[in-house]
Every structure is written in C-alpha cells, then in structure tokens.
Amino acid sequence: MTDTTVSKDRLQTLVNHLLERDAGAHADAIDELADIGDERIVPHLLEVLVIDAIGNNWGEFGFPAVLRERDPPRYLDLPDVRWPGIRDALAAIAEPDFDSAHAWVEWESWYSQQTIEPLEGFDEWKLQLYRSYLPPVGGLLDCEPREFDLQEMRWGNCDRSFLAALNAPDFVVGDAVDTAGKGGEYERYLDAEATVFGFELDGTAYAVARWVLFPHELMNATLSGIPVSLTYCTLCNAPILYDRRVDDEMRTFGSSGMLLSGNKVMYDEETETLWDQHSGTPIGGPHLERDADLLLDQFAVTQTTWGEWTTEHPDTLALDIDTGYDYDYSYYDGNIGFFEHYWNREETVQPGVRRAEDRLPEKTSVYGIVGSDSSEVWVVPVDELTADEVLAGSVDGQQIVALLDATGDVAVYEAPPTPVERTDTGLLDSDGETWAVNRNKLQSQTGETRKRVTGRHGLWFAFRTHYDMAHVVT
Fold it and tell me: Fewer CB in 10 Å around end: N or C, the chain?
C-alpha cells in the first residue's frame, strides 16, 4: 500500500541515491522505496533493473552473443553496478511478480503497456543514470533538440563500444564463397538455403548473409562508387540500404544501443545525430536542428536465399567473411539464441512497443513504401502474396502492383493498366499487353516501362509505431 505521507522531496532524494556510486546506498534506497510503494518510482526502478540484470549476467544477456565469453565492458563490470533487491521492490509496488530467467524482459514488456507518470525531473535523472552507468549510450542520448520521449527510449543491452558496425568489408565473386565450390583463397561459407540481403548498385549485384551481418547490425561501405549503409534491426527484421551522403557529406553510421518502439536507433559518428533506423530520419541532435524534414535516400533490398539470388544474379559479388572483426559468425547460422522467446511466441512483443489491436498481427512481415510525406507509409502484407498472384492498389495516389519476384521476395512497381494477371511470361494487363518482370522495372513488348518502387522490409509494429499514418494495401 502506498504511503501517501512521504513527501516528493523524500522520494526524489531516494531515487537520487540510485545514481550514487555505492551499491549499499542503492540497496538502502530500494528497501525504503519498496516500503513507500509509490507507483511514480516504477519508471526509475525499471531503468536500473535492466542495467542490473545485464551487467550482472553478461554471460547470458550480453549482446552481441559472440562477445559473451569475453569480459563485459568495464563500466558494466564495476562493483557499484548493482541494485540489490530491485526485482522484489518492483513486485512490491506493481501488480506483476516475474521470476523467470528473463524477468527483466517481462518487466519491460509489462511496463511498455502501462501509462505511469514518473516523478518530476525524470528526464534529467535518466540522462544522469545513462551518463554515469552507460556512458557510451548516455553521451548520445543527451542531445538537443530531440523529438522523442526519454521515458520511451529503452536500452537494448548493447552500445556503440561493442556492437561494432561492419566497416569497409571486402566483396568477392560469389563463386569464391559458395560452398558448392572447392578449395580457393576464400572461406566457402554460403549455402544455397542461407538467407541473404541482396541489392544492386549501378548495375552490380551484391549479397550479404544475414547471419554475418547479425552481430554488427550495420555495414558501412562504398560499393560501385556509392557510399551506403546496410542497416538491420534484428527485432523488426528490417534490412534497409541507405545512401549515407547527407547534404553531400558522407556519414558513418553505427548502432547507438538504444531502442525506440522496438526499433534500433542509429547515430552518425561525424555529428552524433540520432537517427530512426526504420524511417531514415533524424530524431535528435545537429541534423534534426538543421532540417527536421531530412530523409535518407534508400535502395531496394531483396531478402531471399543465396541460391535464389545467384540464380537470378549469377555474377553477384558476396561479402568476404574474413572481416577482421574476430567473430565466430557461425554462431548465428540458424541460431537465434536469446531471441527465441521473441520470434517463436506471437504474444511476445519487443519491450518499448505498446500493443495495439490493429489491422494486422504485430509481427506480420510487410513491405512498406513511404509517401511524399515521410510520416506516411503504405504496407503490403508479404505472406498474402503467392507466386501466381498480383496485388494492385494505390500508394500515395499512385497505382502500383506488388508481386513475388523470381527470388521469392516482394517487389512493387508502378502499375500498367489494371487489372493485371500473372502469366508464365510476366504480367498481362487489361489491354492485353504482356510485361516482362525485371528487377528494376516492368517492360512491355512495345518497350514501354514501369519503374520499381523502392520500399523497406519490416514487421507491422515497426510501421504502425514509426509513422504517423500507416495504410495497408489490400
């Protein structure tokens, strides 16, 4: 029961004790806060719960998992990075009492569904906590201006000091890394069924294995003379390829270690601006101040198998697995580890995501096209498409058709005269004209073309939470 006689000043003093470099002071403050039972301190306790759980069980919760056998970052390994009794205190104040091995995740998921007003001054308190106990994260989070709510920004149990972007990797001819080959200079690691992210730049095809990108979540490279960043949110299943030129200046992107509505938050090293990975827009720092309407240009990414990709792009280049980062990438080949509870349980959503009874289940795979206003998006449910089906609809006032291409992934094009039927040779429009389906365009027998409309992959929740308006094309 809440003790209503305790002053706000006393509550503020106690939560400030949680910031001290003294685990004993933490324990004493937590005991008193639990006895008081004021719900307004729950947001404060949740913040320290996550740091306590990960810092004191790095071997189970460290990310990326390939680093768990190594020492945790020094700032997580200090004796004062402990808040004894934190879970019991939460259970005494709030309704749930989670006691599983992943209790901190369950608490985060529960908290994301609540509307709890913290004590006055929470934003500055949280910034101080992160600056002190998660300095690589706190240094980025303490930015102005910002368009996000600090209470909704969650720590993703990593940071830029150990979730390292894959920078300037080498690409080699696909045959050199295909397991169907024999011998050679390069490690043959790509099986036909391996999931890859394929893309084309200036006529050259490239492929990056998902399980190699997984512990980096981001790649910076200059390919075909174009500086690009292949970003990947593992929880949204969102591979997005951005042009990393901003106002004619090249940016080097990395993972901040933070999540907003379940999607990773990026930053750029040159200005330390925070960026929304899914929308490609600045959300805090210098670039937001200069141009709040800034939107990164992007290229189409195909999510398919290595076998399907090479069948359609036999001259593709592929990532050389000898990256120099000393990671055992094979760990991720078919192993989702800690994410198993997330991917295999429909009822589980990422902490930071407020569930909604909406048009689609939260983890539906969709392909989204952003409109002329970057805050509005149209999505195509991927699983609703079959090999012999064409979905026609309207996106931002433009007629489009969506279909599965030769690799089995969704592709969206400007529409020929509709309705359109799928045939053995391509598409048959309402005028009786046949259109060949190519990667970047539809082409009629008379030479007329319809361009491909570039979109982005992801799960439905990422679209409905990261855009002001999300439409479903049906």
Answer: N
In a 3-state reduction of DSSP, which class is residue 465? Answer: helix
Supply the DSSP string of 83-108, one letter for each residue.
-TTHHHHHHHHSS----STTHHHHHH
**pLDDT tens-digit map of 354-403:** 888 889 988 899 999 999 999 999 999 998 899 999 999 999 999 999 99
Looking at the DSSP assignment, which residues form a beta bridge with residue 317? 173, 206
Distance CA 405, CA 411 (A): 6
Average pLDDT, the chain: 93
Helix/strand/coil percent split, the chain, to 5? 25, 30, 45
Share above pLDDT 70 across residues of the chain, in percent, rounded to a whole number: 96
Whether the CB-CB separation of 458 and 233 falls below 8 Å is answered with: yes
For residue 32, CA distances in Å to 38, 122, 458 come to 11, 19, 44
Please give, one letter per residue, the 3-state secondary structure of 390-443: CEEEEECCEEEEEEECCCCCEEEEECCCCCCEEECCEEECCCCCEEEECCCEEE
pLDDT tens for each residue of 297-328: 999 999 999 999 999 999 999 999 999 998 99
Q: Cα-flanking dihedrals φ and ψ of residue 227, to 5°?
A: -75, 120
Other beta carbons less than 10 A from residue 141's beta carbon: 25
CA–CA separation, 252 and 19 (whole Å): 33
Helix (H) / strand (E) containing 112: helix 103-112
Average pLDDT over residues 245-260: 95
Question: Full-prediction pTM beyond 0.90?
Answer: yes
Q: Given this model, what pLDDT does residue 5 score?
A: 76
b/e map 78-108, b = 16+ CB within 10 Å: eeebbbebbbebbbbbbeeebeeebbbbbbb
pLDDT in tens, 421-437: 999 999 999 999 999 99
Q: Which of 408, 424, 379 is nearest to 278 (CA)?
A: 379
Peptide bond before residue 73 is cis, with ω within 30 degrees of 0: no
Task: With a cut of 60, say whether residue 224 has pLDDT above it.
Answer: yes
DSSP letters, 31-50, are: HHHHHH--GGGHHHHHHHHH
Given a cut of 90, whether residue 2 has pLDDT beyond it is no
Is residue 420 within 8 A of residue 434, CB to CB? The reply is: no
Ranges of beta strands (E only) in 2-41 are: none
C-alpha closest to that of 284 among 141, 387, 164: 141
Alpha helix locations (H) across 214-369?
Answer: 286-290, 306-312, 340-343
